[in-house]
Amino acid sequence: MVGWLARRIIQAIIVLLAMSIIVFIGVYAIGNPVDILIAPDAGEAERQAVIRAFGLDKPLWQQYLLFLSNIVRGDFSNSFVFGEPALQLILRRMPATLELATLSVLISLVVGIPLGVYAGLRPNTGISKTIMTGSILGFSLPTFWVGLMLMMLFAVQLRWLPASGRGDTVQVLGVGWSILTIDGLRHLALPAITLSLSSIAVVLRLSMSGVREVITADFIKFARAKGLSNGRIVRVHVLKSIMVPIITVVGLDFGTTVAFAIVIENIFAWPGMGKLIIDSIASLDRPVIVAYLMIVVVMFVVINLLVDLAYTLIDPRIQREGRSS
């Protein structure tokens, strides 16, 4: 186990180093932020002073080495626009995005697994066919359109839920969380449901296909022969067997949800990292863009590691097979 973990950490470091190069070149080789940071009528001396202040006068490879040495210390440089550390800006917005993504993933699990198990156990019923048709819509409908329709219905027409903002928050360990208040949950409902629709469709179909594959297996027949009830067979044997692919998809989907919640955050004016990165792209605020992308890369690497660890907890045979190979 220790050797496997060490290999995974080394692989993660290599991935992070490669991605740092890609992200740095992709961001720093595009555009000139000086054109945005200073007025068009500024003199050449003022222009050169700004260039030197932000280190933009150095060759690109020197800027990268300086960037790499800084991020090892957790320093992503100061934002060109806000004039404060880029990492601090992102971490300030991160709780809002994390709670939105977490609630979205929880909704996809709570809704997708039961519906998928039902459709897998009774595939020929009208309810199951309706469920599968709904999953196709979850894949097909554009997220931004669904968000706007939900906003029009529940916020504008029915006035049941707020259309924008984060609502009341509660301070826990110095961080404000809206998920812990009733008003915050009301503000979270529409963006979280919108963000979860495609994930619900994925979890639902994985659950259904997993159940249909497992339900005919020999160990399920043996469990029935022992006299176990259908409910116990589903809870103990079927669910355990289908959870490995679901954990894989949900784990990666969480990282994807965090990274691509940008559209939903802008539609519902949710003050998370997505709104910040859109504003930073518009102003070519390179330190914030690079810091955001690197945090997303780190998040994906950590999630992959946690997913692999979860495999061994659900099915220890995976760890034994890894050792034998």
Description:
- The protein starts with a helix and ends with a helix.
- The protein has a domain at 90-281: MetI-like (MetI-like fold), CATH 1.10.3720.
- It has a two-stranded antiparallel sheet with strand order 1-2.
- The chain contains 14 helices and two strands; from the N terminus they run αααααααββααααααα.
- The protein has helices spanning 2-28, 34-37, 44-53, 60-72, 86-121, 126-140, 143-157, 182-214, 218-225, 230-259, 262-267, 273-282, 286-314, 316-324, and strands at residues 170-172, 175-177.
- 29% of the residues are buried.
Please outline what is shown here.
The chain is mostly helical and 325 residues long. The chain has helices at residues 2-28, 34-37, 44-53, 60-72, 86-121, 126-140, 143-157, 182-214, 218-225, 230-259, 262-267, 273-282, 286-314, 316-324; strands at residues 170-172, 175-177.
Radius of gyration: 24 Å
Give the C-level CATH assignment of the domain at 90-281.
Mainly Alpha
Mean pLDDT across every amino acid position: 80
Low-confidence stretches: 320-325
List keywords for this structure.
2 strands, mainly alpha, disordered C terminus, single chain, 325 residues, two-stranded antiparallel ribbon, MetI-like fold
Chart the SSEs and their pairings.
Layout: H1 2-28, H2 34-37, H3 44-53, H4 60-72, H5 86-121, H6 126-140, H7 143-157, E1 170-172, E2 175-177, H8 182-214, H9 218-225, H10 230-259, H11 262-267, H12 273-282, H13 286-314, H14 316-324
Antiparallel strand pairs: 1-2
Helix pairs in contact: 1-4, 1-13, 5-6, 5-8, 5-10, 5-13, 6-8, 7-8, 8-10, 9-10, 10-13, 12-13, 13-14
